[in-house]
Amino acid sequence: MSNLGHWVTSESLPVFRYTADQDYYPPARWDPLLDAATTRHWVHLGNRRITLVADNEGLSGLWDEYTGCRWLTEPSPHGTGITRVTTTDGTLSTAYAAGVPDSREFGPTFSRVTVADDGVTLSRTVLCPEGEQPWVLIRVRLTNTTDATCRLTVQEEWAAWPASIDLAFAGRTAEPVAVAAVEPVDGGLRAGPLGAPDDPATGGEYLILQRLGDGPVHAGWTGAARPVLTLDQSVDLPPRGEVTLHFRFGLDDGSPPGEAPDAAGPEALYAASLATLRGRLPTAHAPFAPQAAMEIPWHAALLTGGACRDGVLGGHTLNQGSAYAFRHGFNGAARDPLQHALPLVYLEPDLALSVLRNTCAWGSPDGDLPYMITGGKQPLNGPFRPSDQNLWALWLAAEYAAATGDLAAFAEPVSYHPVHSSEPVPLAENLRRQYHFFRDVIGRGRNGHVRIRNSDWNDLVIAECGVPHDRMIEEGESVLNSAMAAWVLPVYAALADQLDDHATAADARRFAEELRTAVASDWNGRWFRRAHAPGTRPIGDDDLWLEVQPWAILCGAATTEQSRQLLDTIDTALRTSPIGAVWRWSPTARHGRRTTEAERGAIWYALNMTLIWAAAEIRPELARDEWRRMSLAAHATAYPDVWEGTLSGPDAFASPLSDHPGRTWSLPDLGLSMQAYPVANLHSHAQPLLAYLRLLGVEPTASGELSVRGGGRFTSRVLTVQPDGSGTVRAAHKIRVRTRTGRIVTGQGVLTWDTAGGQTADRCDRATHHGAEPP
Question: Within 13 Å of residue 580, how many CA atoms lie on the same side as its CB?
């Protein structure tokens, strides 16, 4: 459905084959708004340590966030990572050349370019090996299509162009790091160090380009502070035969020079990585969403590929990416890695826990979470002091516990950010302090709602309110965060009870009920108001703001009749885009007044996920249709010439009323533009995953159970859900599952239940079920 390429299956995995010749297809050129127009299209792929930025020019960049936001080699303006093969008839290159037939493919953790002439086919795959290797594996396969031996020279080229990036918002986005020296090692070259010799983080780090395998190579480099490294090898290619070469490029992780980093050899590592990848990616199938079969495993791969081991704070970071990280150099807001980790609870729960611990370690001993971690791994509140961030930590913790039963994890110590010089505390205590910070420091305003501070979920909400900034920060209230808290806090209370913190649990439930009552009072007969501002009418009384509405339904503030009426209104007023509901609607726009860009509304992944969730039981057809609109397929159908949304996307898309529909937002006066880096935002992968699970009724309950209703298929290493509501959970600890009939199955190990909600066979250790079907 995209004019730029199509999906295929390769290596038994979903792969996008890029088929456009960008120099001959004018719509391929696009405007980043802050930079010159370009035909470059790229995607981010990764393992749990390194990110490969692969593009349609056959070039690469490498990103690492272990010690800070940094490029190991920048992908722009020229890119790097090229294989050249010289024959007696000329040269084959994996770098794009206009008009030269080739095949360019983007896989879940690899990119591949294939080129050929009359005698030789060159296929080059750049793979992020499974695990936490800080380098990519390059596999070069040469095929002789003639009956004569071909003597070739194979050259592998990578640029050692490291660059750190830290809160850059104007001019150059990354500061180059000079490479002090290049030295030969067996089979390759080592460049560095990447920092000052006395820097404990980067002083001992080197980039390495190394041939893995037998055969002599000639190593060389050009340039000094920013060298380009090359390895040359002669190859005799037998008639109708094949030869495969392997290289690696990235951080030198101490593998012995001249030896393969994997004991079984590079080809075995290549095969094992793809086999492991196939085994860990989930599968999905639903008649209402045929796109899920391809997109669910794709989203899971790109979401987990955004993770990076954090060498400063511990655990893994899950930076939302896009312009925020890769252009401007920060990890924020704190809510983002937490919400991106939510679907990982059902895919790779160890990674979800690692992200929870890492983000909690951003904070201070009073329970506050900073708005961001800078590119240098320092906490910073900057222009925003949101009032919602603790809620996301409490939510992720409760969802993890409900799905895994792993209460022991909450007794393990978590450090606070080193700037606070504070002793670690158990994770349970860290979360308890966050709850009390939310309740006591953020607190509530005169109408009983959570204070808005200078932002809630919406960083620019105060600017949209039309109330003096300082007064809104002091006295403004967020109906949105009251509604969210009214759902989150009872779920967290269930966890607190399981941890024997009954006082916190009881307090959280009381607080949630008071907030639920306050939200219920803000029903205006058509929808729920957005916020309260001093000295003016409630915000959102005359216009509909989407973000608060699903939470009002989910927390129980909306009655059944109000929920149905509200979803009908949303269906009519906000679901005006082929790619999802828009954020905001003003009825005054129907009377000839020119609407502002804000009133036109963008399409936000995070908001439409909660809309799908809230509508799943009340208006299931609406929820399913909204998920289809959220899909990559829907965007490619509506905007077939737009790259963003084809494989990955931003955090939000512009509305159909915008002058650039299907693309994303830009604030050029501030030097901030998502359109300048409109892909690789993890919202575009995490939210479709979580929304699909919510369509199947997979969610934690206020009683501490895991609820599963069914309605579609989903299979991962830890959870299986069938359309009829039966399923399996694999949990090393005791959990409780509430089935679609209302019956509860309890146990650990392999917990299986049938369509009636009863435990089946003897596959679960110490399993019981109880309760009766609801009337």
Answer: 32
Tell me the C-alpha distance between 308 and 706, whole Å.
Answer: 28
- The Cα 763–Cα 750 span in angstroms is 6
| Cα separations in angstroms, 746 against 312, 459, 741 | 39, 42, 15
pLDDT of residue 299: 98
DSSP code per residue over 623-670: HHHHHHHHSHHHHHHH-TT-STTTS---SEE--TTSSSTTS--EEGGG
**Looking at residue 408, what is its pLDDT?**
98
29 dihedral zone (left: phi>0; alpha: psi -120 to 50; beta): beta
**Residues 6+ positions from 553 with CB-CB distance below 8 Å:** 563, 566, 567, 614, 615, 618
Distance CA 523, CA 529 (A): 7
Amino acid identity, position 478 = S
Predicted local confidence at residue 101, as pLDDT: 83
Rg (CA), the chain: 27
- For each of the domains in the chain, give its residue range(s) and CATH number, in order of start: 1-39+559-678 (no CATH), 46-280 (2.70.98), 706-770 (no CATH)
Q: Cβ neighbours of residue 147 under 8 Å, at least 6 residues apart?
A: 239, 240
Pairing of strands 372-374, 330-332: antiparallel
- Neighbouring CB atoms inside 10 A of 185's CB total 16
Backbone φ/ψ region at 632: left (φ over 0), alpha (ψ -120 to 50), beta: alpha
* The two three-digit tokens of residue 265, written as one number: 């050899």
Q: What letter would DSSP give residue 595?
A: P
pTM: 0.96
Contact 573, 586 (CB under 8 A): no
Predicted local confidence at residue 535, as pLDDT: 83
Give dist(CA 140, CA 463) in Å, integer: 53
Note the pLDDT of residue 756: 86
175 Cβ partners below 8 Å, 6+ apart? 163, 164, 165, 166, 168
Q: Is 408 helix (H, G, I), strand (E, B) or coil?
A: helix
Cis check for the bond before 300: say yes or no (omega within 30 of 0): no
Residue 577 Cα distances to 337, 600, 623, angstroms: 27, 11, 15
User: What strand order describes the sheet that includes 379-380?
Assistant: 330-332, 372-374, 379-380
Residue 45: what pLDDT?
98
Pairing state between β 413-414 and 425-426: antiparallel
Q: How do strand 652-653 and strand 603-604 relate by DSSP bridges?
A: antiparallel
Can you name the residues that pair with 73 across neighbouring β-strands? 62
The residue with tokens 């399913």 is 624
Beta-sheet pairing, 120-127 with 110-116: antiparallel
Task: Give the other-Cβ count within 10 Å of 562's Cβ.
Answer: 18
State residue 505 phi and psi, 5-degree precision: -60, -45
Residue type, 176: P
Q: What stretches in the chain show pLDDT beneath 70?
A: 171-172, 255-263, 588-600, 761-775
DSSP secondary structure letter of residue 584? E
- Please report, as a single letter, which amino acid is at residue 210: Q
Strand partners, 277: none
What counts of helices (H) and strands (E) characterise the chain? 18, 45
Cα 526 versus chain centre, distance: 34
One-letter amino acid of 414: V
**Which of 75, 71, 9 lies closest to 42, judged by CA?**
75
What pLDDT score does 771 carry? Answer: 35
Helix axes 605-615, 620-630, angle to 10 degrees: 160
